[in-house]
Amino acid sequence: MVMSFRVSDLQMLLGFVGRSKSGLKHELVTRALQLVQFDCSPELFKKIKEIYETRYAKISEPGQPPQQQPLPPPPPPQHRPPSETLSIHSSYDRNSAVTRTGLSTTPNIDYPSLYGKYLNGLGRLPVKPMKPEVRLVKLPFYTLLDELLKPTELVPQNNEKLQESPCVFALTPRQVELIRNSR
């Protein structure tokens, strides 16, 4: 379903989960596919289904009932061993919300053959990077006396311009003395 979304639909989906909505279509599709793969939740699948249904309800002819809407053609079947397939299992009652959702993936999925031009030759989706340890560079105009809090990266966690992070720490008597003497 996500593969058939327009840019505006992808932006709506990414905005729903608080991700960046800017970029080219193939970048938005990649982010949306990563959401489905890594951050699957019933709310996310419900939103995808809602966007899909609103998109194809608009396309259908005025005299045509919504149950007989034309669906886009499914992608050609891929012949792969079971260990390399991405499967989303969903069983639901047509009159209620999704009751059971599961996602099973393996890291050896060949994304270009599954998703074609949308990944623009990226090969595989990038692995979630582990946060590197942040270290301060030693410079001649300051002396590091002690470390109260570990340094953190300055990458924004959301779309807000101002980012605050409260910190609480207790000073040892030695640290109090160092601060007092450093004036």
UniProtKB/TrEMBL annotation:
Ranges for domain PINIT come to: 122-183
Q: Name one GO cellular component term.
A: chromatin
Instruction: Output the Gene Ontology terms for molecular function.
Output: SUMO ligase activity; transcription coregulator activity
- Gene3D superfamilies from the UniProt entry: PINIT domain (2.60.120.780), SAP domain (1.10.720.30)
Disordered: region residues? 60-92
The superkingdom of the source organism is: Eukaryota
The name on file for this protein is: SAP domain-containing protein
- Organism expressing this protein natively: Micrurus corallinus (Brazilian coral snake)
